[in-house]
Amino acid sequence: MLQVLCTDIERAGKMENGGGASSVEN
Q1: CA angle (13, 3, 18) in 5-degree steps
Q2: Which tens digit of pLDDT belongs to each residue from 1-26?
Q3: CA-to-CA distance for 1 and 15, rounded, in angstroms?
Q4: pTM above 0.90, yes or no
Q5: Torsions phi, psi of 20, nearest 5?
Q6: What angle do CA 26, 15, 5 make, to 5 degrees?
């Protein structure tokens, strides 16, 4: 569950933040 959500957040972060915030969460 957590892994799936992380992937979703990462994809959105890459589009919005270019994968900046997503990197911190991952």
Answers
A1: 15
A2: 566 666 777 777 666 655 455 455 54
A3: 22
A4: no
A5: -90, -60
A6: 40
What local confidence, expressed as pLDDT, does residue 17 receive?
A: 56
Tokens describing residue 11: 């994809």
What type of residue sits at position 24?
V
User: Could you give the 3-state DSSP secondary structure of residue 8?
Assistant: helix
Taking the C-alpha atoms of residue 21 and residue 5, their distance in angstroms, rounded to an integer, is 14
- Token readout for 22 is 């997503």
Count of other CB atoms within 10 angstroms of residue 17: 12
Query: Cα separation of 8 and 16, whole Å?
Result: 12
